[in-house]
Amino acid sequence: MGFKHEIFPIARYVWYNLVTMENLRQRAQILLERVDIEDRQKRMHEIETESTAPDFWQDTNKATSKMKELAALQKEIDDAEKIKSLLTQENEEELSQILEELELALYLSGEYDKGNAILSIHAGQGGVDAMDWAEMLYRMYSRYSEQRDWKAEILDITQGEEAGIKSVTVLVEGEFAYGYLKNEQGVHRLVRLSPFNADHLRQTSFALVEVLPQVEEIKGVEIKDDDLEWDFYRASSHGGQNVQKVSSAVRLKHLPTGIVVTAQTERYQGQNREYALKLLKAKLWVLEQEKRKQEQAEIKGGYVAPSWGNQIRNYVLHPYQLVKDTRTGEETGNVEKVLDGQIDQFIEAELKRDKSAL
Question: Fewest CB atoms less than 10 Å from the CB: which of 147, 190, 198, 337?
Fold first, then answer.
């Protein structure tokens, strides 16, 4: 009897390891098929050839982007070779870790995933509480950016009269910024005891998060100077005071579409003009994407435009502590950690939700 009790745990352990290793082998095989080493080596050779040109570094931004792509390609090749080696060694722990990293990289294989993001937060229903909630979200994404060593720079901001912010637009610069942040787009709902209510009643507040890629060119769209209407005005400081004496703030209207963007956080008009153009290009890109989706929907059916109905996550501070994503079911009771920028579990769960993409 005692012998059976000893042998069964050992058998279960062996069986578990066999199943785990087989699962890792299957995942590794899928990844190795997706990571075409020969194709990546060819692309690396192309970039290396380009980099030898005398004028390669004249466009610093473009050159830097190419070198980052080169480094990323080399890492994918190195990871693939390491996976092959670990498969022969049957090293479960290390193989599992490297598969996780490479799977994430493949989930982030969209056209703009490796680039910068333009993130906007708009206070919704809930009055002052909603404006305070919008500021809390701004802090959450700022802390998340810091943890990833990304640079987050405010392009435009409108303060709330009593507290918080009505809206804020931030340029997030860093590798894979758009890829990681793109699925944060949607409505974020907060439930808590209101700090702005004398009776401290429970209050539900909403904020809308928009995430756009920073794009330089849009296929099929030409931005003509004659289609742009510029307006310059004096900007207030971030605190809503100390109105500047120089008209450095910029309002830009795209006449064919009616899209209007503003930028006012920099002291110099030229910088704000540059930011306004970045915002306009991102908005026009979204417009083109929605047109294509609508055209596809006419054939296939089922297209739903982004709207306030797309609530993606609930943050509950009262009567209990819980953050839950409505799309993946991912949740945690550590609300303070989430609001301090530790949102990787939600972002990665959404990236992995459709594994059939691999």
Answer: 198
Whether 21 and 169 share a structural domain: no
Residue 150 CB neighbours (<10 A): 20
Q: How many angstroms separate the CA atoms of 261 and 226, rounded?
A: 17
| Domain coverage including residue 271 | 226-300
Boundary (domain end) residue, out of 107, 133, 151? 107
Total residue length of the chain: 358
Cβ atoms within 10 Å of 178's Cβ, excluding its own: 25
In a domain, 112, yes or no: no
Number of domains within the chain: 3
Range of lowest pLDDT (75-89, 193-207, 247-261): 75-89
Distant-in-sequence contacts of 172-177, Cβ < 8 A, 24+ apart? 172/116, 172/117, 172/118, 172/119, 172/141, 172/145, 173/116, 174/116, 174/145, 174/148, 174/149, 174/150, 175/68, 175/72, 175/114, 176/108, 176/113, 176/114, 177/115, 177/116, 177/117, 177/145, 177/148, 177/150
